[in-house]
Design goal:
The chain is of the alpha/beta class and 515 residues long. The chain is built from 15 helices and 13 strands. Helix 14 packs across helix 15. About 4% of the residues have low confidence.
């Protein structure tokens, strides 16, 4: 036996012994895992495995999106937009009944997962509690009733599996499509529903953190650059996920200082963020300039549009001056928008949207070692009631659900005409209230707000604006105090509209009393 043959046989024996030891001590799964890892080192094998996985995932995504092989290459043709005119309640109810009838009924006793409750008296009292403590969405009594009906219809379901409950899959997909159209996204725009603006912003930060880990592993202390007026949920996300927010000052007109943001960018910066508008003063940051900066620096840019996402598009269509803030700008890579604000859905419904799948994929968490199967989740929460939306996962993934049925019904029932009508009403009311406040000596509006909220400040040293807010509280007016900037914040809502003159009068009387 030659020296080469001796070495060859020795190596073979050692490898066999190691593999047998792994088989006996750690089992077949670990043995197969190591074999696959070794095979992936061979030329071409890793690409082959990647191709097979991509094919499986693509097939699943088509199932989740209710998309066939024929139309998957032409998403534009199958896009669903917010209807021009609201769909009559009767037609929506009929459609709901059709969707429900096509799904399995847990009461048939053939479903061994997903639904734990019975549609009995005990469940009925829960529906009553929901009705009692859920605030009206504010559009109309008929609209409130319709939204509740859709919520009740799917409250009993659990969307852990999009194949078992296809109606929830269909509704979520259409909500994302309608919102993308409203915010000038294209057929590549994708997203998920979440439980609210906090979770939407959390998921955006998580996605871009994971993207940086994948593409820029040398960055050990990732940073977000954002103006001081950015919503605290961005800071909360940074705290949760191990990032640092570098806050930059705003200009004299209370907008993000783009030059200051540029100076704050460092080798550790992984994300830029700004607001449309920021809650403090109702002012839209210079999103177009920041978009250009993001492109120049090769950074993703998240726009927190939770407050304005379902108002600014209609305000702009009404002819009010609104700077560009959405996916029309090529540097904008993600946006958050709350349906439960000016989308007039029930509380607990928001959206996080990405320019394309390349960004969204970093939001999804997967774990393959669980004995129960491959687990995946795109957001913070796991399972929630079936009136709430399913999000997309793979194989035995757990699905999160966020008021999909109620949100879908709300958007389709209103249509563009409904949204435009309410936006017109509220913008006229906003103008009226601002003019009334401007006519009160010693008070002024902060900056130039772009939509249905603004901040009131004092230009008289004898008037303490926070004390004025306290005085108004004694008359049962609930004012938001911007303590750090020493302002009083007002947001125009549908239930406030009939009492505008009363509010102006109360502000004037309390101001005079304080003098």
């Amino acid at each position: 036996m030659s020296w080469f043959q001796f070495v060859e046989h020795s190596v073979f024996i050692v490898v066999v012994v190691i593999l047998l030891n792994i088989l006996l001590n750690k089992g077949k799964v670990e043995l197969f895992r190591l074999i696959v890892v070794a095979l992936k080192q061979l030329p071409g094998i890793e690409g082959l495995v990647g191709w097979a996985l991509h094919k499986e995932v693509t097939h699943f995504v088509r199932q989740v999106n209710n998309e066939s092989e024929e139309n998957s290459s032409n998403r534009e043709a199958s896009r669903v937009l917010i209807p021009k005119k609201g769909i009559p309640a009767k037609d929506l109810r009929d459609e709901m009944k059709r969707m429900k009838s096509a799904e399995p009924n847990p009461d048939d006793g053939k479903m061994f997962a997903y639904v734990y409750t019975l549609d009995d008296d005990h469940f009925g009292i829960q529906k009553e509690a929901f009705d009692m403590f859920t605030e009206p969405v504010g559009y109309s009594a008929e609209h409130d009733l319709l939204v509740k009906e859709f919520h009740h219809a799917f409250l009993h379901e659990n969307a852990l599996n999009p194949i078992i409950f296809p109606s929830l899959r269909k509704m979520e997909t259409e909500i994302i499509s309608m919102a993308a159209g409203m915010l000038n996204g294209d057929q590549e725009t994708v997203g998920f529903l979440t439980s609210g603006g906090t979770e939407s912003n959390l998921m955006a930060v998580k996605a871009f953190r994971d993207r940086a880990r994948k593409l820029f592993p040398h960055i050990k202390h990732p940073e977000i650059v954002a103006p001081t007026t950015i919503h605290p949920t961005i800071d909360k996300a940074a705290h949760y996920f191990g990032l640092h927010v570098v806050h930059t000052p705003v200009t004299s007109d209370y907008k993000a200082d783009v030059r200051a943001m540029e100076r704050a960018i460092s080798p550790n910066t992984i994300l830029l963020s700004a607001s449309a508008p920021h809650f403090c003063h109702g002012i839209v940051d210079p999103i177009e300039e920041i978009s250009d900066l993001a492109i120049q620096k090769g950074l993703p840019f998240h726009v927190d549009c939770c407050f304005g996402g379902f108002m600014l598009p209609w305000v702009e269509k009404l002819g009010y001056p609104v700077p560009k803030f959405d996916f029309r700008l090529p540097g904008v890579t993600s946006m958050s928008a709350d349906i439960h604000k000016y989308g007039y859905g029930v509380k607990g419904s928001s959206l996080i949207m990405y320019r394309n799948e390349e960004y969204r994929k970093y939001q999804i968490y997967t774990y393959a070692e669980w004995p129960g199967g491959l687990y995946g989740s795109p957001s913070m929460a796991g399972t929630r009631p079936g009136a709430i939306s399913p999000t997309k996962q793979y194989k035995t993934f757990c699905f999160q659900e966020e008021n999909i049925a109620a949100s879908w019904a709300s958007m389709r029932a209103l249509g563009e005409e409904g949204y435009m009508f309410r936006a017109k009403l509220l913008m006229e009311a906003t103008t009226q209230l601002k003019e009334g406040i401007q006519n009160i000596m010693g008070l002024h509006i902060i900056g130039e707000p772009h939509m249905t909220c603004f901040a009131v400040g004092s230009c008289d040293p004898e008037i303490d604006i926070l004390a004025l807010a306290d005085a108004m509280e004694t008359k049962d007016f609930k004012e938001v105090r911007v303590t750090r900037a020493y302002h009083m914040h007002s947001c125009l809502l549908l239930h406030v509209y009939p009492f505008l003159r009363l509010q102006c009068h109360a502000i004037h009387i309390d101001k005079v009393t304080m003098k």
